Hints:
GO terms for molecular function: identical protein binding. The protein is mainly α. It has helices at residues 13-26, 52-68, 73-85, 89-102, 107-119, 123-133, 141-153, 157-170, 175-187, 191-202, 209-221, 225-233, 238-269.
Amino acid sequence: MVILSHPLRQRRPAAMAAALVATALLAGCANNSLTTGSVNPSSSKPIAQMSGGELQGALASYRQRYERNPDDKAVAIRYASILRMNGNNDQALAVMRKAAITHSRDKQVLAAYGKALAGAGQFPAALDAIQRAQDPTQPDWELLSAEGAIYDQTGRPEEARLRYEKALQLAPNEPSILSNLAMSHMLQGDLSTAESYLRQAVQQPGADSRVRQNLALVVGLQGRFEEAEDIARRELSPQQAETNIAYLRQMLAQQAAWNLIKEEDRRATN
């Protein structure tokens, strides 16, 4: 996550808004690197639902598997996903770039490569890869949602929401799509609508910690700090909760700095 410093005072509010939600749209909150542990390398548990300890164990296991056979596309894709969940976006991109060279026509590899590009902030290339991975005859809702997130990051909210609507038609009430849709409204300053979508998302089966932490962020941005911290603490160990609270406070502090910049801009134009 970007920390506000003096050079950022040159940025405009729209750029600041994008910085505030960059991790929320395509990754998630700071629920990683918290504890030690292990995970069965063959586990099919969704990476987004892994605890911090499971992520660390998965990272070690898949690093070894990838080093033994870097051309195994399934291992490369899962290893890159785990790297991204641990915040190692550049390394994830390097893994998927190599896989994309080896498996240049593989749709799964292209999709994972697009997500890795987006995680590294290379949005035009990410959009191209994800669109090439999409099959118009059998659309993939995850790719539509990822495409929407990229449009949001590049200031095209109308196109983003069209993708989310199409994704929801394929996967009604899918919490990750609802969360991305909420972040889209957050980017445009519509916090109440964002909260409404996130409230709906957290009620769905399969809603993971990232969705709840996005809700905590949106609630906090509306000034309801105690409620936000309570949401951020739910269903987490004390250590995980404190890490997420620290992340939440950092994000809210950045929002406060953004508001100061907007006020300075307003005064300068008057």
